[in-house]
Amino acid sequence: MADYMSMDNLRFILHEMLDVSQLCELERHKDYDKESFDILLDSAKTYADKVMFPTLKEMDEAPAHYKDGKVIVHPVVGQVMRDAGENGSIGSTFDYEVGGMQLPNTIAVGVAHISSAANNSIGGYAGLTSGAAHLIINFGSQDLIETYTPKMMKGEWAGTMCLTEPQAGSSLSDITTSATPVGDGSYRIKGQKIFISGGDHEHCDNFIHLVLARIDGAPAGTKGISLFVVPKKRISGDDLESNDVLTAGDFQKMGQKGYCTTHLVFGEQDDCKGWLVGPQNKGLKCMFQMMNGARIDVGVTAASVATAAYYASLQYAKERPQGRRILANGVKNAEAEQTTLINHPDIRRMLLLQRAITEGALALLLQASLYHDLSEAGPEEDREKYHDLLELLTPMAKTYPSEMGRTSINAGLQIFGGYGFCTEFPLEQYYRDIRIMSLYEGTTGIQSLDLLGRKVTMKHGAAMKHLTLEVIETIKAASNYDDLKVYAGQLKNASKDLEATLMHLLKFAMEGDHERYIADATVFMDYMSTIAIGWQWLKMATVAKTALVTGNMKRSEGFYENKIHTMRFFFKYELPKIYSLAETLKHPESLTILEENKTVLA
Ligand SMILES: Cc1cc2nc3c(=O)[nH]c(=O)nc-3n(C[C@H](O)[C@H](O)[C@H](O)COP(=O)(O)OP(=O)(O)OC[C@H]3O[C@@H](n4cnc5c(N)ncnc54)[C@H](O)[C@@H]3O)c2cc1C
């Protein structure tokens, strides 16, 4: 079987860089140890090899579709939901008392990396079910928890998140789905939701939709949005009966074709019941819990698809003979045997780019997940700090893999030459599959507005201060090694540049020119996330260097040397890009803001 991810790299990040076993010291995770984490990761890999990877192409070639009122998906979806229910992975991070396993999020994300690299069309079915059940557990009544979550955690019932409407995508303040109190504690739900992932198919008995809607008379905007549990079928004695949720269609897409994307109509017959989750008009706040988790999930999926593409490109580059190396005297010996692609510097550049992006992205995602765990179960006095760090990293952890993962797959496709464009090779599918990542769960534009408009300034810049201290720690550790000092210096300069650029932009906000402040938020995202990935690379290189110097190596010497080499690549080819981005961000002209009486974009 072809390689699609590296267990060695995953273990390096989890154990050697993040020391994830530190979590086993905490009360919440005390039943785990390094060995049990490794057993879980190994069994996830065995399962992904056997069940998920072999169906990747099949799901692309036989897409989910709508036929005679039903959504047809590949049967493996049913198998994975049942298996996930049986092995406990849907509720793996939940508390013991609700039937969960109290597994750290960091390990769950490691497992998700393995399965998404194997097949990115399947994981979302169980992932959304997990997110929806978690939301009910955290904000729902005891009755709702008992009615819905046990079957969701068993994989018998599926969960979804229903935010988007035809007229309300990024701007949720415009949703119009209505909720009218019936008088028995339930609400009559009416409206349409589009693009609902995993919204219907034949392999689960019921679909538990977490729906954002507006209670009659609620204030306009996001302050009037509430959250409801709306099952496709409601419980009637021992049976299930229709709850007037109609599936009107399944969107046909350019990628991730095995993951159905449904159009749902609630209450066409005025007989759709929903139950409030959390307080009235606080639905968006509750939903953010699921959205934040889903943003990390999307980042992981993006990093994983790009990782699978890297390994496919690497294998191809090793096998494909093409051309000859240029000899030291500058000539090619036409009579010599062809060399393989991997020996050409430009191919090596593209492979290193893929590696630098994918491993850097994975490190950032696992770092964010560790902060997540520490924010929930770490020492009481540090929880807020870790929560702030998670909040700050989340938009970057979603966006960098989604955007740069695409760049990375593009480089991989180039390595395949013409074959990269053809369906018998996997790169064209990965290229199509990853495209959705920068669109759903908040587009790149929206994530960037969140990063610059909210996260860097929240709590008077507290999260930025925490992050700066973390970066300083990394710089200090790297500076202990002579041959890493130069890179430590580069990250220090980048960090100073970030501070200066941010100060420059903040002046606009302080002067009340918010549109100018935020106008280049997406450029800022590119800029800051490149620095964040530089931070992760220096961290990885320092750990690798320590292993080489102390001889305490858990992997081959080559593994650690390659880590350092890839860090050097990132610092030569990627990190310097921040200075041109900074120039753009600080440029006095503002060319994108709409001006009265000017029709530049006619
Ligand atoms: C395959 C797929 C699966 C999905 N799954 C789900 C799901 O399970 N549940 C769910 O609720 N939704 C789901 N969605 C919907 C998805 O989250 C939305 O498509 C996304 O939020 C963007 O909304 P939109 O498509 O209406 O685009 P728009 O909001 O119209 O955005 C179009 C463009 O304008 C930009 N833009 C919008 N507002 C601003 C602004 N104020 N400032 C600057 N730029 C702006 C955006 O960044 C984007 O580039 C899914 C979508 C797809 C395609």
Summarize the structure.
The protein has 602 residues and is α+β, with helices and mostly antiparallel strands. The protein has 18 helices and twelve strands.
Explain this structure.
The protein is an alpha+beta fold. It has a domain at about 445-585. Helix content is about 55%, strand content about 10%. The protein is built from 18 helices and 12 strands. The strands form 3 sheets. A 5-stranded mixed β-barrel has the order 4-5-12-7-6. Strands 1-2 form a two-stranded antiparallel sheet. Strand 8 (about 235) and strand 9 (about 240) form a beta hairpin. The longest helix is centred in the middle third of the chain and has 37 residues, at about 285-320. The radius of gyration is 25 Å and the shape is globular. The protein binds flavin-adenine dinucleotide. Flavin-adenine dinucleotide binds near residues 195, 253, 261 and 443.
**How far apart are the first and last residues' alpha carbons, in Å?**
53 Å
| Helicity level | 40-55%
Helix segment count? 18
**Main beta sheet, described?**
5 strands, mixed, barrel
User: Reading side by side through the largest sheet, how are the strands ordered?
Assistant: 4-5-12-7-6
Label the overall shape.
globular
Structural class: alpha+beta
Radius of gyration: 25 Å
Question: What is the arithmetic mean of pLDDT?
Answer: 97
Unreliable stretches (pLDDT < 50, length at least 5) are: none
| Order of H and E elements | HHHEEHHHHEEEEEEEEEEHHHHHHHHHHH
What ligands are attached or bound here? flavin-adenine dinucleotide
Portion in strands:
5-15%
Number of strands: 12
